[in-house]
């Protein structure tokens, strides 16, 4: 059967659209989604077209690592993910924040879609 026709996760009674493992729940202490940050150089500045989208688990990983000062082991346990997954989430968030800062793009925080 072609790859796109497979039922991923069927043996566990779950279905998701792509290859690989499904997303597991990630525990986020605060609700961040719905927040938008906009860089402003002057009061009448219009919004740039490109908005950087951060998922709230990326912001939570950033908070745990940098504000709380937790180790990867402790932070990943707090979020309920593996250390490798925590590290990927954190790196993704750092890259997006750097992009927003250096290219002066607004960024917004949204819930990660469950697929």
Automatic annotation (TrEMBL):
Q: Which residues cross the membrane?
A: none
At the top level, the lineage of the source is Archaea
InterPro entries xref list? RNA_pol_sigma_r3/r4-like, UPF0251, WH-like_DNA-bd_sf
User: What range does the record give for the signal peptide?
Assistant: none
Return the similarity comment: Belongs to the UPF0251 family.
| Protein name as annotated | DUF134 domain-containing protein
């Amino acid at each position: 059967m072609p790859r796109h026709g497979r039922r991923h996760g069927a043996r566990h009674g779950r279905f998701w659209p792509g290859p690989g493992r499904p997303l597991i729940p990630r525990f986020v202490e605060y609700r961040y989604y719905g927040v938008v940050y906009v860089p402003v150089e002057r009061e009448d500045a219009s919004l740039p077209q490109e908005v950087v989208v951060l998922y709230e688990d990326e912001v939570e990983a950033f908070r745990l690592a940098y504000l709380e000062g937790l180790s990867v082991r402790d932070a990943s346990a707090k979020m309920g993910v593996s250390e490798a997954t925590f590290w990927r989430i954190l790196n993704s968030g750092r890259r997006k924040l750097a992009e927003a800062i250096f290219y002066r793009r607004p960024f917004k925080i949204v819930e990660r879609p469950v697929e």
